[in-house]
Design brief:
single chain; 416 residues; alpha+beta; seven-stranded antiparallel sheet; five-stranded mixed sheet; 14 strands
């Protein structure tokens, strides 16, 4: 499978200028492609092909006075920007037809030069390379200093240079991993686990509030990264609101706000990576509940839901299950896991959230609400075993393959 390995870049002043020029040229070509297609649509003409756009917007544009500066950057960067525009329209049309899974996508929009996040992509034909001294040599940019947090397992097929909202630069390499080597990293085990994710939970013995409860009774504390950083975030946001729009001081204040949010995001992502890897290293199969995160994010618990980062955590579980040869089973969100006795199977009906313990009327077993739900999730997924050691529901369903995306990058790389 393909994964992205992201490493922190530290370009000097001249290299930052060259990267800014590459970002701008790629953005202009993308906007020109969108404008050309929109003009053709309004005129009732067929859309120009990728070859026609490449010849008109890049080759011929370089010979004009208005676009002669496109020749100052690598041609590969401009061609990849056209590919991005083609992919955006392809996704839009497949979404209109209903052939694309997920929410409906809108038509591609123009990119703004004021967007804090910029990126350019270099493929193998751009002749970029990693020097003997460990620097990343990019065409028409130079050898950029890289902080390598690990060795690349194979030769990358492409590299994307990204500047995030906090002003940090990253190099994202696409790597084709070796399935046999990945699965050898985690020896097979006979353990399975069910996970109950939640917010309104009792305190753990350590005094924290758990973000997840496992079917073996383990409660995992929630670091609450956003809540802990709220005081600092409020201060930086208040300073930003007091600065005059368009001033240099406002730009500096905006950068402070972005860096404060980046610290929260990076800490949460690091926690999710460590937790998901630990769970799969100890268990062959994991069962989770299909939560409606978008629905919960529209309630009064929205801030806590976003702080927990359930979607990101489940996404990591999905791709790591495939990478390491593990099993991830997702059960329906309407399964009455909190209403069912995990001992005798009696459905005892809904209970208010303030009821954290309850006694089964049929068998008299006293249940912890969350541990009981985690056990029921494991049983409903078919990962539980009976007293004789046979699976309650035979046959494990392998996790669906997740295509590696480029949404956000931590400090250093976290592909595992």
């Amino acid at each position: 499978m393909q994964l992205r390995y992201a490493f922190r870049l530290y370009p000097d002043a001249g290299q930052r200028t060259a990267l800014g020029r590459a970002f701008g040229c790629a953005r202009v070509v993308f906007n020109d492609a969108v404008r050309a297609r929109e003009d053709a649509r309004k005129a009732g003409q067929p859309f120009p092909t990728a070859g026609q756009l490449s010849r008109k917007l890049i080759t011929e544009a370089k010979r004009t006075g208005e676009r002669s500066w496109l020749g100052e950057v690598s041609a590969v960067v401009l061609q990849q920007s056209l590919r991005d525009a083609e992919a955006a329209y392809r996704n839009f049309f497949t979404s209109l037809k209903g052939a694309r899974k997920g929410p409906k996508l809108g038509a591609p929009r123009f990119k703004s030069r004021k967007d804090a996040r910029q990126s350019v992509r270099f493929t193998a034909n751009a002749r970029w390379r990693i020097t003997d001294s460990g620097r990343l040599n990019l065409p028409k940019i130079g050898a950029v200093k890289v902080t390598w947090s690990r060795t690349l397992p194979t030769t990358p097929t492409s590299v994307t240079v990204i500047k995030d909202a906090a002003g940090r630069y990253f190099a994202s390499f696409v790597i084709d991993t070796d399935p046999a080597a990945d699965q050898a990293r985690m020896p097979a085990t006979d353990r399975t686990i069910g996970i109950d994710l939640g917010l309104t939970l009792p305190q753990t013995p350590s005094g924290g509030t758990p973000i997840a409860v496992l079917s073996d009774g383990t409660k995992i504390d929630s670091p609450r990264f956003l809540r802990r950083a709220e005081k600092k975030l409020k201060k930086t946001q208040r300073e930003l609101s007091r600065k005059q729009k368009g001033s240099k001081n406002r730009a500096k204040a905006r950068l402070k706000v972005a860096r404060a949010h980046a610290e929260v995001t990076d800490a949460r992502r690091e926690f999710h990576h460590q937790l998901s890897t630990k769970l799969f290293s100890e268990n062959q199969g994991i069962a989770v509940e299909d939560l409606s995160v978008k629905g919960l994010a529209r309630t009064r618990l929205a801030k806590s839901v976003h702080d927990a980062g359930w979607s990101s955590f489940i996404g990591m579980l999905k791709y790591k299950a495939q990478r390491y040869g593990r099993t991830l089973v997702t059960i329906g969100r309407f399964t009455p896991t909190s209403q069912t006795c995990s001992t005798c199977g009696t459905v005892d009906g809904p209970k208010p959230l303030n009821v954290r313990e309850w006694t089964c009327a049929a068998c008299g077993t006293v249940h912890d609400r969350d541990i009981n739900a985690a056990i029921n999730i494991k049983t409903a997924a078919g990962l539980a075993v009976s007293a004789c050691g046979a699976p309650v529901r035979p046959g494990l369903v392998p996790a669906q393959r997740e295509e590696t995306g480029s949404h956000g990058f931590p400090t250093g790389n976290r592909a595992a």
